[in-house]
């Protein structure tokens, strides 16, 4: 659930084109609670709150508690730049986990990507705080620029005590577009396979990266109607056909989004230790 388009950072690769001028969109807190209720009726096992930056939404705590009340496990994907004290209390609840992105061990390099001075230290300190509180945490390293210190970032995270570290390359989506190579080539092949994304205006996509493939809107239809709808079935069939015909590639060295032998092993009901969006292979590049 992409609950806001607002974010204190202006990351150069942001797929959602989020930033300080973004908004919480047309979806009200009541709308989000209804989506959570409908998700529970459909048997959804995990909900991920993303943005934008989900911690800037005034009712994030209420939404997390709403999901937990249905027995739905929760992941909050945050830049961890600023976490209010009351949110730490929510994040320590059983069934909640955190995820964040980290770009380099060097503050200057990290902040050249995030667009905000001081963001490296804040994220690093809050990674340490999450670990201190024993909150389950995964960290993704996104390789964007030549010379980026991704190996050193991984080493630093390991030294801090992070055990779940993922790697991805730049996706040509949103502000990440560099060469014009967009579309299904930027997807992993698991879109709409046990996962859907809901935007701040209620639009539903098969994946946060597949924003050109809307399959409905939760402000106009129930989630159950969208899941059973012909539009989603058609998009799912089209993506399945596309990836069945796509050439197989290897996982290393670049860890491409779609690689026939490099899918995350994640069933329809993702376990707590599985990325619920599953739109990246869980592999690291070889050390340079």
Automatic annotation (TrEMBL):
Residues 1-139 form the Radical SAM core domain. The lineage of its organism: Bacteria, Bacillati, Actinomycetota, Actinomycetes, Pseudonocardiales. The keyword Metal-binding applies. It comes from the Bacteria. This is Radical SAM protein. One of its GO terms (molecular function) is catalytic activity. Residues 188-241 form the 4Fe4S-binding SPASM domain. Keywords: Iron, Iron-sulfur, Metal-binding, S-adenosyl-L-methionine. It holds the Pfam family SPASM.
């Amino acid at each position: 659930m992409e609950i806001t388009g607002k974010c204190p950072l202006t990351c150069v690769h942001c797929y959602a084109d989020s930033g300080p001028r973004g908004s919480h969109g047309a979806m009200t807190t009541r709308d989000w609670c209804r989506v959570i209720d409908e998700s529970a009726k459909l048997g959804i096992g995990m909900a991920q709150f993303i943005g934008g930056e989900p911690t800037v939404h005034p009712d994030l705590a209420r939404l997390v508690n709403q999901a937990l009340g249905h027995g739905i496990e929760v992941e909050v994907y945050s830049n961890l730049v600023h976490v209010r004290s009351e949110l730490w209390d929510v994040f320590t609840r059983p069934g909640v986990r955190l995820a964040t992105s980290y770009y380099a061990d060097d503050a200057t390099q990290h902040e050249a990507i995030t667009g905000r001075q001081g963001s490296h230290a804040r994220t690093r300190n809050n990674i340490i705080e999450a670990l201190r509180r024993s909150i389950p945490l995964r960290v993704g390293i996104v390789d964007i620029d030549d010379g980026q210190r991704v190996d050193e970032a991984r080493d630093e995270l390991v030294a801090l005590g992070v055990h779940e570290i993922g790697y991805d390359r730049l996706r040509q989506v949103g502000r990440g577009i560099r060469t014009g190579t967009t579309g299904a080539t930027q997807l992993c092949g698991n879109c709409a396979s046990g996962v859907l994304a809901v935007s701040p205006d209620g639009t539903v996509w098969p994946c946060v990266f597949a924003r050109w493939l809307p399959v409905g809107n939760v402000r106009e239809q129930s989630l159950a109607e969208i899941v059973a709808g012909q539009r989603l079935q058609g998009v799912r069939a089209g993506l399945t056909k596309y990836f069945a015909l796509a050439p197989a590639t290897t996982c290393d060295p670049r860890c491409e989004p779609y690689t026939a032998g490099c899918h995350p092993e994640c069933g329809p009901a993702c376990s707590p230790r599985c990325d619920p969006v599953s739109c990246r292979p869980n592999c690291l590049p070889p050390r340079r």
